[in-house]
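In pairs, describe these two lines:
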Amino acid sequence: SSRNLNFSLQIPGGTTKLHLPLHPSKSVTVPCVTPQILHTVACEHSLAFLQCGKITRSLLVIFVLGADYGRRDSSTCSINRPANHLQNTLCSRPTTKVAESCNGKSSCSVKASNSVFGDPCSDSYKYLVPSTECE
């Protein structure tokens, strides 16, 4: 008799193949791909666009590992900004709002703005950094 198998597998570093017995006399080979962690940067007032593609015929979905909104350095999103908007680099705040909006979707956009995430540091030009995987 055939059996349905439900499982979750994470494989660090590299690509491997997994043999799943579906029937005592048969097996199938399923390619397993190591997830790529994607770090996106969206400057304040712009959109972070997150998107996953397909592997074989399966549509991948977004899984947000974490996201920060604020400023952690003086060089990111600094073009044409006054120096006083880049000085405070200790004003980043973690947020779950990106995960709440995007997890489980194949694509998603989130606005990097104080109206969405609050203002962790007034008088600083901020940016959103979501870290995601496609599953």
